[in-house]
């Protein structure tokens, strides 16, 4: 019975210590990422906004979020660097009947939904 209290305290402190250690490692990795930013990097903010680094200040980052649109953000909001492989922002379902919309000569075209396709996609959800 005398060992129960110290074992209980130990059982509570060990997971807390491990959690704090993991959190410190992640914070160090994020701080290193924010310090290593350079102009031209594609990044994602904590709000989920994708942009290209257009300028750097001591505590701020200028992000180009659209052609010609630059906004200033704190460096602390940069969450991760985005690579071309990981950037799949298309949520449009491609069905077999959508193949009729693609050009036959193999040229790439912009994918736009017709109102009927949009309605079909929304009905599925």
Automatic annotation (TrEMBL):
Transmembrane segments: none annotated. It is a single-pass membrane protein. It is found in: Cell membrane. InterPro entries: Preprotein_translocase_YajC. Residues 84-102 have a biased composition (Acidic residues). It holds the Pfam family YajC. Belongs to the YajC family. This is Preprotein translocase subunit YajC. It comes from Rhodococcus gannanensis. The gene is yajC.
């Amino acid at each position: 019975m005398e060992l129960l209290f110290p074992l209980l305290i130990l059982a509570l402190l060990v997971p807390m210590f491990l959690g704090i250690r993991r959190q410190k490692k992640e914070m160090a990795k994020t701080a290193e990422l924010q310090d290593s930013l350079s102009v031209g990097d594609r990044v994602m903010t904590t709000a989920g906004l994708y942009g290209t680094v257009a300028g750097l200040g001591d505590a701020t980052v200028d992000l180009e979020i659209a052609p010609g649109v630059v906004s200033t953000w704190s460096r602390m909001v940069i969450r991760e660097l985005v690579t071309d492989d990981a950037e799949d922002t298309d949520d449009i379902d491609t069905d077999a009947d959508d193949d009729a919309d693609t050009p036959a000569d193999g040229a790439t075209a912009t994918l736009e939904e017709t109102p009927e396709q949009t309605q079909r996609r929304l009905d599925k959800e």
